[in-house]
Structure formats: structure tokens, C-alpha cells
Fold:
Amino acid sequence: MIQKISFDLEVITPLFLSGSDQTAVELRAQSIRGQLRYWYRALLGGVGVTDLRELQELESDLFGSTERGSAFKLRVLRKGDQDQTPINNLNLGGGKPGITYLLFSAKMNRRSFIPVGTRFTIQISCWRNPRKHLQLAGCAVWCWVNLSGLGSRTRRGGGSLNVANVEGEEIDLLPSFTQVGNSPQLFQQYISSGLEKVRKLVASQNNFDIRPVSGKPSFPVLAPENLSSILVVNQVWDNWEKAMEEIGKKLMGFRRRRPPDYENIKNFISRGTTFNMVERSAFGLPIQFRYTSLGGESAIVDWKDSTASDQKKETRRASPLLIRFAKLAGGKYCTVLTFLRSQFLPNAERVRIKTKKGIVSLNQPSDNIVFDLVKEMGNLLPVTIR
Structure:
């Protein structure tokens, strides 16, 4: 017998999501499944499943693999036509430097977006062991909507969502999706209690006890052993724009005034002066530096996987820091920061800097700079992960 859970969602910051046509917006079930898979993996790792073979087996039991089908089907339901708003409607630029900084690539690529206030529903249907798989999928949904978002610029606050309502079977053991509280303190308690429930559910539904996580895993995990930091900024804003603007300006100010990367790379281009690390790379790769004072010369900081067979090797590394804006009861907004620590690059690979003079290898960055940034965000309420 097929059983279902439906989540009614509201877009609370601009959502940039497209299919093959990057000029058109599209709410894609595939993109949502990708988010759920990411957070389910983080939950599994956080309860001690760090062996990649065991991880793959448990993950494929829910999401499927080449040998077996998925345990659930996900549909996106939307009434009426898909809203599409041009980026110009956000009036990004000098008057909104913080929002412009957070949404920089969307502005640069002139991406249309799904506007704030848009509502849609995701429906999850299960037919194979529905009690188990609906609850596991629900745990992934809970982490996704509370700690992340959907679409491009998700890690910088784009595509944040609010759960308006949940209906369906097998939701009795899941944490609340809607009782977020009307203050940062209550929201902190909501996140802490919800995480405790989903972690216990993921372990119990897979028939094992929560295990400690040793070392730094190769993928992001939601674990309490100094591998995950979730912090609620102890401040409220009247609307999403004020929240994004202030957080964006703090991030922009920190990264722009932080020595020594800018000068190190400039001296490397102009004088050949060597150095061993780009601190800012801890926020993700690639990074481009351009110097008008050097006639427009530039440098790209990225990495290459030396073990990959494809010579067009992946050079991206997502930021370990996620910024999400949350809508509180009563309509005000707060901010939650999630820092998921894991191996920065696989196989002890090295960061590299590319200029017209060639390529030079550098050390991987320390994540201390991420902690330094988080401290700049103001009074923080740490979430206890049990």
C-alpha cells in the first residue's frame, strides 16, 4: 500500500533554480532529491556510518542505485503558472551591497528567480516498507529545510524555505517542522531537539546504535564530536532583505579586509614571491583574483584530482559553511549558520594557483578562518547536537 507525506513550502529568499535552459526557472524534483541525498548522507555519517561501503548500502536502500530502485517517489506540486522574475527586480548594486555580495554569481549571470512568497508542495510516496522509508526521507527533509535551501547560492542564503504545513502518514515520530518559535532562543531549542530526534530515528530505523565518529571523515557529517557547528545568530530582522543585507555586509567586510591573500597573490604575479597557502580557499574553490593595478592580470585558485581518469577534472570545492535565513513565528527573521567539517580535498590533494606564468601547488587551507568569520556574525547561540 502506497503511503505519502506532503510538505507545503514557502520561498523566503530569492530562489535560483533552472533546468537545461538557464534563462528559465524551474522547480525540479531532481534538485530536491539531490539535497535530500546530501543531508541523509550527513545524517548517516553523523551517527557513525563513515565506512564508504556501508554508507553506499544504506544510502541506496532509500535512494536507489543501478541495482535497485528508489524506495520513494518525489513529486513537486504547484498550482498555477511558474513565476519567473528577472534579476533586475532585486535592484542589486550599490544600494544593497550585502545582498549583492551573497547573490553575486546570480547577478553576474543575470539569472531569473522564483520570488519570495511563492508556495509549492513536495509529495513523497513510499510503497516498500513505507513506515521506515517515509520516516527516513522525512528526516532528510527536516535537515534540508532547516539548515539549507534550494538552488544556486544556497550556501549563501539563497533559496531558503519555510514549512507551512505537513500532512500524511508516518509523521508521528518525526520532529515538528512548524513550531519554530518566535525568537532566536526558541529557534535554537527547536533545531537542537529536532536534530536529536532525526539522529535517533536514522539509527533506529537502520537497526543500529549511534556510534562515535573518529577522525575527520571524507564527507560532511552532522555529528557532535567537533565536526559540526550549528549556530543561531541572536538577532531578529523585520524581513528577509534586512537579514540578508546585514549578514552579507559582514561576510563581505571580513573577506575583503582579511590579509594576506590579496597581497600574496599580487606579489606572486608581479614579483614571483612565493607563499604556501590561500587562507580564503577554506570557503570553497575556485576563487578568482583580478588586479587592475597590474593591467588586468588575474589568478585562479582551484584544485585538480590527480587520480581522476578524466583530464577535465573537477576543480570545485563547495563551501563548508552554509547560511540559511529562517522565518520565525510572527513573521520576523533570524539566521542559522552551519559549519560541516570534513577533509577539505581528497587523497591529500593540493590547492593550486593558475596564472599566465603557469601553475604552482599550495597547501590545503586551515579551517580556522571559517571560525573567525563565524565570530564576526555577532552574538551566537550554539545548537547542541546530541
Notes: Residues 184-205 form the longest helix (22 residues).
